[in-house]
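INFO  loader      accepted 1 record
INFO  loader      residues=321
INFO  predictor   begin
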Amino acid sequence: MTTSSTIKLNSGYEMPIVGFGCWKVTNETAADQIYNAIKTGYRLFDGAQDYGNEKEVGEGINRAIKDGLVKREELFITSKLWNNFHDPKNVELALDKTLSDLNLEYLDLFLIHFPIAFKFVPIEEKYPPGFYCGDGNNFHYENVPLLDTWKALEKLVQKGKIRSIGISNFTGALIYDLIRGATIKPSVLQIEHHPYLQQPKLIEYVQKQNIAITAYSSFGPQSFLELESKRALDTPTLFEHKTIKSIAEKHGKTPAQVLLRWATQRNIAVIPKSNNPARLAQNLSVVDFDLSKEDIQEISALDIGVRFNDPWDWDNIPIFV
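INFO  predictor   done
INFO  writer      dumping C-alpha cells
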C-alpha cells in the first residue's frame, strides 16, 4: 500500500499527513522547536489559541521563512477557536488575535476546538482565558448554537483570512447536525485517537462524508503523563506494550513509528511532537513502510475505550457521554 504524504481536503487544499503538534511546547523553546522542525522537513504545524504559545510559534515560522528554509505557501498552519469566543461577534476578534500573534495573513485551517461555548472574556482581561470565565474558578456558559459559530467562520473563509475550516472533539451526532446547516462543509475533524481509543464508527462515518481526520494523542497516555492525569498514570504505556513492541521489531521501526503508521496507513493525519532531532525525523518517516493486515488486526484488538481528554472532568460537560 502506498500512502500519499498529503490528504486532499474538500476545500481543495492539500494537508500534510504528518505534522508537528504545538500542544505543551513551552514558550521558552517554541520558536527554536518550530524552526528546527521546519528544517527537518515538517510543513504542517497544529496549534491553538489555548496553547498560549502562538507568538513564539509565529517567531519560529517567520524566522524560517526569512532564512529561506521555506515559503509561506509551502506551510500548512492550523489553529483553533477557543471556547470563550463562540459568539459570532467574537469569532473574527479571536482569529485576528491569532493572526497577529503568528504574524501571518491567513490560516490554512481553523478549527472549533470544543463544541462548548464559555462566557466571553475580553482579550485584554486574560488571554488565553483557559477555563477562566470572568469569575474566578467558576464556569459560565453562553447560549450560542454551534451553527451560529460555524456561520461566522464561513464568513472569514469568504474574507480570505482562513482557507479551510473544521471541527475538533465533535461526536457523530454533532457533525450530522452541523453539516445540514453548513454552507461550507467541515474540511477536517480532529479527535483523540490511539489504540486504546479507536472510535471506528465515527471514523467510518466522517471519512464517508469526505471530511479528513487528524488524530491527536497518537501515543495514548504518553501525552498526559506530565499533566499527572491519574487515568494516564494508571494505563500501560503503548511504547512498552508487547503487541506494539513486537510489530516494531518485525519492521525494524520504533514503537512510535508503528503507532503513527497505524493511523497514516488508514489516511488519518497525525501531529506528534518531539524535542529530540532524531525522533523528529523518525516521526516524519511514517509513510514509507506498511503494516500487514495482521498487524492492523492486532492493534485493533487493543481498543479499551479509554479517553484521556474529556470535558466531563472539567465541569461535567457531557460531550462524550
